[in-house]
Amino acid sequence: MKTRHVTLSPHAALSLRLFAGLIEEGRLHKGWTRDELAERVGVGVVTIRQIAKGSPRVAIGTYFEAAALVGVSLFTDDTDTLKRESATQLERLALLPKRARRQQYEPLDDDF
Question: What are the structural domains, with CATH classification, of the chain?
Answer without folding.
Answer: 10-95 (1.10.260.40)
